[in-house]
Structure to design on (242 residues):
């Protein structure tokens, strides 16, 4: 049963279940975590990434990318594009299913939450100030930082040998926490096409009480921005011999 596809699927599912779950807990009415703020969201996402990585490895993906931008970056870094056709569909499907589980988990809260925008934000990102060029840059930069620092954590030049190698999931979680706190305030730091697009599709498809539109006019930003940032960082890692 263990396989790279299943690992990426399950890891991304857990990532979205816990990541979007903390957003839902903060934003939806009468949740015990309601209004607990950005620090809670950023911390929840950091821990969600850590848990997703562990899950992916257990279920068969030693790479544990959980993110099409990272899969693209590693392909451009190595010149091996063979994993794209397996990893990216698994990540997208896992994100969609994870978002559906968040909807089920918080089922009674959708009806009593009147703000349709808040409901959508529990699924996908939206910019604090809408400006497509600036939003694209934010997503590309955040993803480039993610890929480059993850590349340093796993590089033979830094941490690939000795006890530190086993710390990678924790270190990646800390990195995502840092990105969320430092760079996430502009766009909500999707930094992962599957994290945004899969749940956005779920938002459009699910019978969510009182939901509004799924903001498809913005949807390409958290897909293309991370892809561009990831590819550029992958090429930089390749140039450095990481």
């Amino acid at each position: 049963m263990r396989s790279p596809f299943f690992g990426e699927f399950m890891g991304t599912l857990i990532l979205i279940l816990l990541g979007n779950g903390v957003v839902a807990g903060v934003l939806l009415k009468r949740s015990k975590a309601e209004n607990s703020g950005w620090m809670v969201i950023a911390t929840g996402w950091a821990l969600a990434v850590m848990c997703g990585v562990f899950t992916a490895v257990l279920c068969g993906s030693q790479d544990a990318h959980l993110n099409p931008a990272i899969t693209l970056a590693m392909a451009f870094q190595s010149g091996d594009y063979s994993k794209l056709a397996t990893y990216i569909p698994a990540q997208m499907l896992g994100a969609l299913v994870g978002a559906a589980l968040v909807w089920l988990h918080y089922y009674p809260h959708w009806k009593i939450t009147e703000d349709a925008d808040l409901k959508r934000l529990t699924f996908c990102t939206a910019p604090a100030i809408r400006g497509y060029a600036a939003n694209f840059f934010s997503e590309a930069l955040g993803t480039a930082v993610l890929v480059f620092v993850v590349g340093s954590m796993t590089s033979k030049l830094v941490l690939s040998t000795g006890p530190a190698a086993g710390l990678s999931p924790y270190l990646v979680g800390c990195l995502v926490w840092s990105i969320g706190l430092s760079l996430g305030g502009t766009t909500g730091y999707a930094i992962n096409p599957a994290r945004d697009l899969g749940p956005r599709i779920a938002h459009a498809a699910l019978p969510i009480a009182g939901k509004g539109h799924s903001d498809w006019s913005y949807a390409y930003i958290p897909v293309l921005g991370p892809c561009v940032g990831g590819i550029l960082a992958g090429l930089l890692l390749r140039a450095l011999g990481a």
About this structure: The longest helix spans residues 4-27. The chain has a mean pLDDT of 95. The domain at 4-240 is CATH 1.20.1080.10 (Glycerol uptake facilitator protein). The chain has one domain: 4-240.
